[in-house]
Amino acid sequence: MKRFTLMLALTGGLLTAAAAATAPEWMYVTPRKTDTYYYRVAQSVAATQEEALKKAFAMAIYESAFAVGVAVDMQTLEKMSADSAFVSLSKFVSIPINLVCRFVEELAPRGYRAYVLCQVATDPKVKPAYKTFNCLFSKEE
User: Fold this and answer.
1) What does the DSSP assignment read for 13-37?
2) What is the per-residue pLDDT across 61-100, written as a single tens digit (0 to 9) for each?
3) How far is CA 20 from CA 15, 104, 137, in A?
4) What is the pLDDT at residue 27?
5) Which value, in Å, is the radius of gyration of the alpha carbons in the chain?
6) What percent of the chain has pLDDT over 90?
7) How confident is the model at residue 127 (pLDDT cuts 50, 70, 90)?
8) Which residues, in sequence order, are CB contacts of 116 under 8 Å at separation 6+?
9) Strand 94-106 relative to strand 139-140: parallel, antiparallel, unpaired?
10) What is the pLDDT of residue 14?
11) Pick from 53, 111, 63: which is nearest to 83 by CA?
């Protein structure tokens, strides 16, 4: 019984390591910011892939709003389109945000964890000149 438990533990470790090897680099090393925008990685867990992605994008917006001192309702954000380029947080504040990469992993026994990489304007009043980001090689082009 002890051998079986040890073998299960080792196998689980190998599977986790294998899953980590397929994850994109941007999940662990956030790309460098530019003069007009920075990168933000956000994650979320949900029952479906689509819902996990929507919630992860909402979390990216929520964290970006918090960074500029704007309080927002998370439930309202989750109802937004998952690819908005210009998010209006209030009557007075809008944040340019660009969803550039997605990564979803299946969780055992059920559910999904989604990660998103977004380009977020450093100054909400200035629309940045976003560059194309290669998600496979984790670099700007």
Assistant:
1) HHHHHHHHHHS-GGGTSPPPP-SSE
2) 888 888 877 777 777 776 666 555 566 666 667 788 899 9
3) 9, 12, 16
4) 94
5) 18
6) 42
7) confident
8) 41, 42, 43, 53, 56, 57, 60, 99, 101, 102, 103
9) unpaired
10) 37
11) 53
- Cα 98 from Cα 69, distance rounded (Å): 20
Gap between the Cα atoms of 119 and 101, Å rounded:
10
Structure tokens of 55?
A: 């919630």
Q: How many CB atoms lie within 10 A of CB 107?
A: 13
Residue 69, sorted as left (phi over 0), alpha (psi -120 to 50) or beta, turns out to be left
Question: Token pair of 86, please?
Answer: 């210009």
pLDDT at 128: 86
Extract the tokens encoding 25.
């680099």
Which tokens belong to 107?
A: 């969780």
* The residue type at 13: G
Beta strands in 54-111 (DSSP E): 86-88, 94-106
